[in-house]
Amino acid sequence: MKALTPQSLNDFGGKCQFEHSRKRAAKALLEAQRFRILQDINNLTVRNPETRIDRVLNREERDKLLGKLDQQGTMTWGKVRQLLDLHSGEKFNLEEGGKDKLVGNRTEIAMRKALSDTWDSFSSEAKRLLLIDLLTIDRKDAFINRARSHWKFSAEQAYRLVDWRLRSLSQAMPAYRLKQ
Predict the structure, then answer these.
(1) Which one is predicted more confidently, 130 or 23?
(2) What residues contact residue 153 under an 8 Å CB cut-off, 6+ apart?
(3) Is the same domain home to 51 and 114?
(4) Exposed (0-12), middle (13-18) or buried (19+): which is 169, by Cβ within 10 Å?
(5) How many domains would you assign to the chain?
């Protein structure tokens, strides 16, 4: 296996679709998670079963769905309908297109699981910087030292973060591993 080396935060799988001269950002960054969620929500339409007319979500529905997707990893279409007070006959375009669920903010969920209330107490900037550390420090021992000394995490929290990173990397790039 090839050891994972430190990467730029904008060196994750190709070119940016919006700024063609730049590399794509890491999916784990909160901005990338938010972009993906907003893209789905803004592309979502609801079809009235009687008139067969599609409508976009209103502002209140979009905000409610965004808030929920920030809190959980996935939502089934049934749960989305329940949240938005829609009846079971109303269908979503993405649902009819074969998408089986909406994916939430997996980074937020993973960080809350690893760090409990500590994650929610961080400012947006602190969250961003922690994620940068997670994505760019290539040695397990170096990250654990940084997590313990700079971030003041317990050993258990530091190891949970490393475990999350290892699982994330093995799913995204099975041929890579962290250096020991």
Answers:
(1) 130
(2) 115, 118, 147, 161
(3) no
(4) middle
(5) 2
pLDDT tens column, 47-79: 999 999 999 999 999 999 999 999 888 999 999
**DSSP strand E in 24-80: where?**
45-47, 54-56, 74-76
Closest-CA residue to 108 (of 59, 36, 16, 20): 36
Residue 163's pLDDT band (cuts 50, 70, 90): confident
Instruction: Determine the angle formed by the axes of helices 124-136 and 30-43, rounding to 10 degrees.
Output: 110
Residue 69: count other Cβ atoms within 10 Å of its Cβ: 25
Same domain as 110, residue 173 = yes
Q: Summarize the confidence of residues 6-13 as an average pLDDT.
A: 46
Asked whether the beta carbons of 136 and 7 are under 8 A apart, the reply is yes
Q: Identify whether residues 143 and 170 lie together within a single domain.
A: yes
Same domain, 120 and 136: yes
Q: Give the domain extent around 16.
A: 2-29+106-177
Residue 36 lies in a domain: no
| Burial call 21-56: b when 16+ CB within 10 Å, e when fewer | eebbbbbbbbebbbebbeebbeebebbeeeeeeeee
pTM: 0.78
Residue 34: inside a domain, yes or no? no
